[in-house]
Amino acid sequence: MSSAGFNSQNGTGQAYANGPSQNPVAMQQLPGVSYGMTHQPTYNPMQAKAPAPLGPGLYPSGPYQPVPPVSSYQQGPPPSSYPAAPGQQLLTRPPMGVAPSHTPPQSASPSPGPRLPPAQATPPPPAVSSSNYYANPQQQQQQQQQPMPPAWQYNTSPPPMGPPSSMSASPRGPVANHVNPATSVRAPPPSSAPYSAAPPAPVSLSATQPPGPGMPPTSLHGYIQPGTAPPPMNPMPPHTYQPSRAPYGPPPTGPPPTGPPPTMKPTPPPTGPPMANATPPPPKADAGPPQPGPPGRHLGHYPSLPPGYQQTPAPHNATSPMHPAMQAATQPYTQAPQPYQQPPGGPGPAQLSPSLAAMSLQSSTPEALRVVNLLQERNLLPPSPVPAPTPCLPQDLQKINCHPEVFRSTLTSIPQTQSLLNKAKMPLGLLLHPFKDLSQLPVVTSSTIVRCRSCRTYINPFVSFLDQRRWKCNLCYRVNDVPEEFMYNPVSRSYGEPHKRPEVQNATIEFIAPSEYMLRPPQPAVYLFVLDVSHNAVETGYLNVFCQSLLDNINALPGDSRTKVGFITFDSTIHFYNLQEGLSQPQMLIVSDIEDIFLPTPDSLLVNLNECKELVQDLLKSLPTLFEKTMETQSALGSALQAAFKLLSPTGGRMSVFQTQLPNLGVGALQSREDPNQRASAKDIQHLSPATDFYKKLALDCSGQQVAVDLFLLSAQYCDLASLGCISRFSAGSVYYFPSYHHQHNPAQVERFQKELKRYLTRKIGFEAVMRIRCTKGLSIHTFHGNFFVRSTDLLSLPNVNPDAGFAVQMSIEENLDDMQVVSFQAALLYTSSKGERRIRVHTLCLPVVNSLSDIFAGADVQAITGLLACMAVDRSVTASLSDARDAMTNAAIDSLMSYRQSVLTIQQPGLLAPACLRLFPLFILALLKQKAFRTGTSTRLDDRVFAMLQLKYQPLAYSMLMIHPALYRIDDLTDEGALNINDRTIPQPRLLQLSVEKLSREAAFLMDAGMVMYLWIGRNCNPNFLSQVLGVPNYATVPENMYLLPELDTAESQRTRAFIGWLKEQRPFSPSLHVIRDESQLKPSFMQNMIEDRTESALSYYEFLLHLQQQISK
Ligand SMILES: [Zn+2]
C-alpha cells in the first residue's frame, strides 16, 4: 500500500494519488527514529516508547558520553605565543608564532575555580539527547509512583502524614483551593493592602551553603550535595511549629497580626532594568507573630472560598495595549480585580462536578464545534489574529489560570485516556514561554517555599485545602501540611487564610529562593564576546556596529557590582585582551598555536566591568580600526570557542559569538556542503544534520559549566548553520542570523542588527537555570523542543535563560484519568538573576479532562497544534527526511479531519468538514509546507532553511505563527474607525487579509508582517496620496529601491501608517526589518512566496490542497 504523502507525487504531473490515508509516519517505524511523529500509531507516544537506537541527526543522540576535555586542555609543550607588551602593542599586531609565552598553559585540570571533581562536573546522565528523549515507560511509571529522585527532593524520608486511609478516603478529583465546605464560618473580607515592601534583608548565603563550592549538574534544582544534610523543608508534622520560629502557642484564633507588612511585591513593568526591583528576603521574623484569631473560629475548618477573587494585579497586562489576539487571550485576566464574593457553600468538590458537566454540555454546541465546509467557506480568517481558546473550566478556575501566552496546551481539554487521544489524531503537548517579560509578576519572599513533600510541586491555585492545616497536591494527590508561616497572608495581612496567599492566587508567580536552593553563591553576570575579525568580517562592517552598540548600552547590561566582561577576537589566531585595572590601555595577547589553546593571563581577561570600564570602552573604540587592514581570510572559530569556554568555565556565563564565514581552520573546521544548483531541484534536502559533533560536544561541555553560547551569524555565504547551530542549541543559547549582512549594501539588515543587539544586550537574563515540568499523575512528558540539554526525564538544563525563548513538550497519557475532572501542569524555572539572586518562577496550568471526542475537538488549539507539529516536523526532517516530514504534516491534517468526520459528526454531509476551531488547520499545514523550513521545489539556501527550522523550535508560539502564516493588511486607506487608542496614540486596525494575490490591488498598498521581516508592497497604480503623504515620493517610479524606513511626515496618513507599523513591532521583543517593495524589487519574490493560498509551480493552491485532503478523507 502506498504510504507516501502527496509531496512525493507532487511535481510529477500525476494526480495526487495518495494511498489510503495511512500516516506514512506511522507506517514506517524507522529504526533509529524516536521522534514524536514516528509514533505507531499516530500520536501514540506510548507505543513508540521503546528506547530507540538513536540515529544521526541534527541532534544526534546516543548517550552522550562525557568526552574528555578538548585536546587543548591537556598538558603539552608551551605553545608558541606572543604576549604583546603593554603599550603600543595594541595597535600593531605582533608577528605571529614568536615564542615563548610568558604564561604556562593551563593544566589539565579543568579550572582552578570552584568546580566539582571531574566525575561530577562532566555533564550528562545517560542517554538523553535533548530533542529525542524517550522516557522508558517503566522508569516513568516508577517515577510517578515513587517520590521524586533525590536530586529533586529535599527530604526523602516519608513525611509525617495522616494515615493512608484518610488519603484514600479524601475526594480524588483535584479541586482548586476550594475547601470542603464543612463549616462555613465566613472569613473577614481581606483588606486590599497592596503588596507593600518589607524591609529588605540580605540573603544569608552561608547559612546552608555546603563547604564545597562546586555545583553538581545533577543537583541543580535540589542543590544538595551528596553527603550534605538535606535542608529542612516543611518539616513540621501537623500542628507542630517550625523550630526556628518563636513558639506561637496553640493555633491562633485571634485578630490579624500586627507585625510588619507583607513580604510580597509585584515587580515593575519590564521596561525597567531587569531585576532592578528585586526584593531581598526580609528577616525571618517578618511575617510577624500571629496573634490569636477571632473568637469562635473552628480550627480545622474554614470557609470555603473560590480562588483568586481578591488578587489585584492582572498578571500579564502588557505595557501597551495588545494586539486584538493577545487581548482576547488576556481576557480572563483583564477582567478587573473581582470583588470578593463568597458563593453560598462555595464550589467544593461536590459542586465542581455538575459545574463541569454543565460546561461540557455548553461546549458541545458552541462556535468551536460549528461545522464548516472548508470547500465552500473561503473566507476563514478572522478580522484579527486568532486568539487562544479558553479552556472549558468553571469561571473561578479559568480566571486565575496561567496565561496562554506563557503556557498553553494543544488540547485545552485533556482526553481521559490515551486511546481516546489516539482516536482524535491530534498531538498532545504544551507550549511554553516561561521567562517572558511580564508587566505584572507577583514576587514572594518567604523563608519557606511550600511544596508537595512527595512530588515537590509548588503550591498553586489548583491545589485543594482539606482544612486550614492540610492541602492536597493537585499533581500527585498527596496530603501535605500547611506550614505555620503560610497561615499569614501578606496580601491581606490576615492570619488563618492560607488559601488566600499569593501562591494560591496566582498561576504565575516568582519566589526569591532561600539559601537551600543554592549550593554556591549565585554566579555573577559574566559576559564574554567572541568576535570574528577576519578579512571577511571586517568587510561586512559589523564590528563598528557591535562596538558602538556595546558602548551605548554598556551601563544597561544586566548585572550588579560583580558583573564581569571579556573579549576574544580571532581569525587564524586567537587574540585575548588584558583589561586588568591599572593598565593604561588594553593589551592584546595573541595565541597562534590554535591546536593547543591556552589562556595567556587567565586572571585578567575577564574583568570587573565597574572597575575596568574605561579600559573596556577604550578597547571598544579601537577594535574596529585595529583590524581594518587585515588580509587574514582564515577562521579558527573552533579554537576561539575552546578558549572562550576555558575562560568562562570557572564562573559560568554568557558567550556571544559573532561569525561571518565558514570556519576553515583547526578544530571544528567545516567545508561547504551546499550545492546551489540543487537548491530547487533536489528531491530531498541533504545536510540538515551537522557535519561534525565538535559543536555539540563543546556545547555540552559548556552546559556542564553553566555557559550558554549565543551565535550571531552575519554572512553572505554558506556557513553550515546545521553544524554551527549546535553550539547554541545544546547550551541553551540562541542563534541570530543576518544573511547577506553588509554595512553598505544591506542597510535594512544593519538596522535590524542594531536593534536586535540592543535588545540582546539589555534584556533580562537568568543564569545557571534549570526548568522542571511536572504534570498530574497519569500524564507524562516524553519529548522536548527548544534549546537546552535534557538532564533527566523532566529537567532541562539552561545555562542561560532569556525572555525570548520558547519551549514545547510532547505528552502522553500513561494512566487513565477516569476519576479526574481537571489536570494540572507546572513549569518551575530556577535561575540566578543578574543581580545574583536565586529565583524560582512557577507557572501552573489547569485543564479539564473530558471523555468524548467532541469535547476534545471543541478544545483544540489550532495554533498550538501547528506550532507543536512544526517542532516535530523539524526533528523528522533531520532524522528521516524532509519529504517524510512533509507527508507527516499533511497526514496530521487528514487524520484529524477524518477522525472528526467519522467520530464526531452525527450527520454526514458532503464536502471537507472541519469543526470551526480547526477551520484554519489545513491552511496552517499548507503554510508550513510552503515555509522556508519545509518547502521544496523553490530555491532555498540551506542556511536559510536550517535557520527557519531552528526558529520554529525555539521561538515562542506567537512569533512562530507569524513566520508560518504572515499577516497581510491593506494600509493605504487606514482610518480611525475601530482604532485603538493608546496613550494618546491612535492605532488603526485594518482587517487581516487572505494570503492570496487576488487580495492585492494595483491601486493600493499592503503590509505583510512575517515576524522577522515586514514587506510594504506598493501597487503600480497606488493612490498618489499615499505615495506623497506616507512615502514622501511624488509617484510610483520614484519609490527608492532600498527603502527600509518610513519618513516621519507631518501628515495624518503618515502618522496613522507609522503608528500601525510601530505598534505591530512593539508586540514582539525583536525588531523586524521593513522593506518597501515594488513590482521590480529584488525582494518581490520573497513577498510573493508568502502568498500561501496561491498555486506555484511546485506547490498546490489552498483550494487544491483542500481537494487533496478531501480525497484522502473520503477514501
Ligand atoms: Zn505532589
Folded structure, characterized:
The chain is of the alpha+beta class and 1115 residues long. It is 24% helix and 16% strand. It has 27 helices and 35 strands. The strands form eight sheets. Strands 1, 14, 15, 16, 17, 18, 19, 20 and 21 form a nine-stranded mixed sheet that branches. Strands 2, 5, 7, 13, 22, 24, 25, 27 and 28 form a nine-stranded mixed sheet that branches. Strand 31 (980-982) and strand 32 (985-987) form a beta hairpin. Helix 19 (862-879) packs antiparallel against helix 20 (882-904) and helix 19 (862-879) packs across helix 22. Mean pLDDT is 75; it is low at 1-364. Zinc ion is lined by residues 452, 454-455, 457, 473, 475-476, 478.
Short description:
This protein has 1115 residues and is of the alpha+beta class. The protein is built from 27 helices and 35 strands. Zinc ion (ZN) binds at residues 452, 454-455, 457, 473, 475-476, 478.
Q: Which helices and strands occur, and which strands form pairs?
A:
Blueprint (H helix, E strand, L loop, with lengths): L5 H4 L14 H4 L53 E3 L34 H4 L15 H9 L18 H6 L94 E4 L56 H11 L14 H15 L7 E3 L21 H5 L7 E3 L4 E2 L2 H7 L4 E4 L8 E5 L18 E4 L2 E3 L6 E3 L6 E2 L4 E2 L12 E5 L13 E7 L2 H6 L1 H12 L10 E7 L3 E5 L8 E5 L15 E2 L4 H14 L10 H12 L4 E7 L34 H11 L2 E9 L5 H4 L1 H4 L5 E5 L7 H16 L3 E10 L3 E7 L3 E4 L2 E7 L5 E7 L8 E12 L4 E13 L2 H6 L3 H18 L2 H23 L8 E3 L5 H10 L11 H13 L2 H8 L2 E4 L9 E3 L2 E3 L17 E5 L3 E6 L5 H8 L20 H15 L6 E5 L6 H6 L12 H12 L2
Parallel strand pairs: 5-28, 7-13, 14-15, 14-19, 19-20, 20-21, 34-35
Antiparallel strand pairs: 1-17, 2-7, 3-29, 4-6, 6-26, 8-9, 9-10, 11-12, 13-28, 15-16, 15-18, 16-17, 22-25, 22-27, 23-26, 24-25, 27-28, 30-33, 31-32, 33-34
Helix pairs in contact: 11-12, 11-17, 13-14, 19-20, 19-21, 19-22, 20-21, 20-27, 24-25
The protein binds zinc ion.
The site of zinc ion has 8 residues, from loops.
